[in-house]
Amino acid sequence: MVSDLHFGKTGHFRKEGIPVPPSVYKEDLQRLVSQLQFFKPRQLIVVGDMFHSVANKELDWFQKWREDFAGLEIQLVMGNHDILKRQWYIEAGINIIYQQLEIYNFSFVHDINATANPQLPPVANYFFSGHIHPGIRVNGAGKQSLQFPCFYFTPAFCVLPAFGRFTGLAMVRPAKEDNVFAIVNQSIIQL
């Protein structure tokens, strides 16, 4: 399960004249390949923003990559940046879910804040989402601070960090009952 890969974002910026090296995208794709080779999942759930914008060269590279992982089932809960034509997802072998995916007692949505609907009865499921690119600030002596992407767990939901590295961070303010796991130098540290 991952969120906010934003594949194609660096290509989108380059098309607009902003010089972002293609190595950023290639490193993200290679990290995904490494995770898939290590864990050998049958299914990949992406809770939104797998892609960033309209088709570009990077999405052509993704299609070639997809051929190497043709047996991997990909479930994409559509995010606000997943704006490709439906046919493109079909040709890439990606199952698209428009609002939320339910598996047993878990719900997968892109934006946890978009799930609140007063006309629907409350659900007992635990939610996984993305969208905000959660980060945590760690303060040190002398007004020093560092910011890290994080997994943000509350009693009702988890917000996953952005998988793509070419994204920003939204600082979370955990309550006492929440748990935060920062990603620091390729390690996970509970704060």
Description:
The protein has 191 residues and is an alpha/beta fold. The chain has helices at 9-15, 23-39, 57-68, 86-91; strands at 43-46, 73-77, 94-97, 101-103, 106-108, 126-129, 134-139, 145-153, 157-159, 170-171, 179-184, 187-190. It has one domain (9-190). It is built from 4 helices and 12 strands; from the N terminus they run H-H-E-H-E-H-E-E-E-E-E-E-E-E-E-E. Strands 4, 5, 6, 7, 8, 9, 10, 11 and 12 form a 9-stranded mixed sheet that branches. Strands 1-2-3 form a 3-stranded parallel sheet. It starts with 8 loop residues before the first helix and ends with a strand. The mean pLDDT is 87.
- Uncertain stretches of 5 or more adjacent residues: none
Provide the structure class.
Answer: alpha/beta
Please give the alpha-carbon distance between the first and last residues.
22 Å
Multimeric state: single chain
Succession of helices and strands? HHEHEHEEEEEEEEEE
Helix content: 10-25%
Mean pLDDT: 87
Beta-strand percentage range: 25-35%
Q: Give the overall silhouette.
A: globular
Cα-atom Rg, whole angstroms? 17 Å
Number of strand segments: 12
Structural domains: how many? 1
What is the makeup of the main sheet? 9 strands, mixed
**Count of helices?**
4
Could you outline the blueprint of secondary structure elements for this entry?
Elements: H1 9-15, H2 23-39, E1 43-46, H3 57-68, E2 73-77, H4 86-91, E3 94-97, E4 101-103, E5 106-108, E6 126-129, E7 134-139, E8 145-153, E9 157-159, E10 170-171, E11 179-184, E12 187-190
What's this model, at a glance?
Helices cover 22% and strands 28% of the residues.
